[in-house]
Amino acid sequence: MDRGAVPLALAGLIAGGILLAVAFFVPGPEAPDEPVPVVVVPAPLPPVSGYDTLGSGETLGELLVANGLGPASAYAVTEVVRGFKSPRSLRPGLIARFTAVSGSEPDRIVLQLSPDSLLDLVAADTTWNGAVHEVPVSIDTVVLAGLIESSLWFAELSGDVEKLGEDEFSEYVFDLADVFAWKVDFTRDIRRGDAFRAAIERERRPDGSIRSRRFLAIELRNRNRDLQAIPFQRPDGRREYFDVEGEALKGVFLRYPVPFRITSGFSRRRYHPVLKRNRAHLGIDYGAPHGTPVKATAAGTVVRAGTWGSFGRIVEIRHVKNFSTRYAHLSSIARGVTAGAFVQQGQIIGRVGSTGLATGPHLHYEFLQAGTHRNPATLELPSAERLEDEHVDAFRVERDQALALLDAVPLPVPSSDSTAGPAVAE
Ligand SMILES: [Zn+2]
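Above: query sequence and zinc ion SMILES. Below: predicted holo structure tokens.
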């Protein structure tokens, strides 16, 4: 997020420093009693400046020598730096700016000790002086809204657009996609006409570069559903995003599609009672009565709904992050659950049966990650973690304040003459 900021900050400081240096040539009132030596000063050549960065394994001394300092100066500078920060703790990539009167060794060095502090080193007679300059920051809030043309990146923005720096929005897109990563597959589920609003708090440096930023609230309209994300800090310090009900956004999968006991677990190899031979069981069987409603364990897009060999009647749903789930041996598939339809978490997609290769009514549930069968009983999955009851009141206060910020900009709606996205099954 500091990209592009460093050279500007350095350049600004260097410019200011050059003015200061000029001012130093004017006899100051600080030492009026000292005799002023008469010296012949040749007309100064224009200073030349250059950047360098500390290489991996390179010491500060080596960096200084590589940029034209003599060994004595390099040693003196290193000793001055030591007064502010251990030279050994300087990380590779540290940015240094060297300024020198043409043809001589550098007499001014600026080290970027951190994104917000610069160490300014100036040669003075036989030694060097150092001073740290903190870069001040200011805090502001921007509210953006976007009407999606084809993806988050291609959105018609409104709100505080003129306050955005170059490429700033694209960084928000990454963060926003991350916040909703367990709810929305941004590579597939985003439609033309979807929209979002976001309130963002920023810390800005004088040159306009962003020191830090965080979402205060986000709202996303995706395929007829409105999702909100509100950050809230748990008592243990973890900052997470919650929906308006206080449900953690990162939770995705229900523990089971039917609330019945497991009659056959996951195994890569087991004796099959119908086939009478060893055959892997790449799913979990739930012994549920015929007709029991089966729920989608997570929101997603139906990729298969129909009869498929030994699975009998089956529904397969594709979720975020390349996960998919299968629900087999169904007696019936719910109306509207057809390939391409979007289903919500907990939506009834069909009913338990014994179609296909099944000895009796049960649900055969499969869980796949990137096409590979996984055991959902042992797989580490982010599960929805509700906010503890005692923090709900505090959360509601923050939530209402956060959502009110969004009202500065309306959630865009597609104009009636624009082409609508693909039809969404309910
Ligand atoms: Zn099974």
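Residues 262-374 form a domain with the Glucose Permease (Domain IIA) fold (CATH 2.70.70.10).
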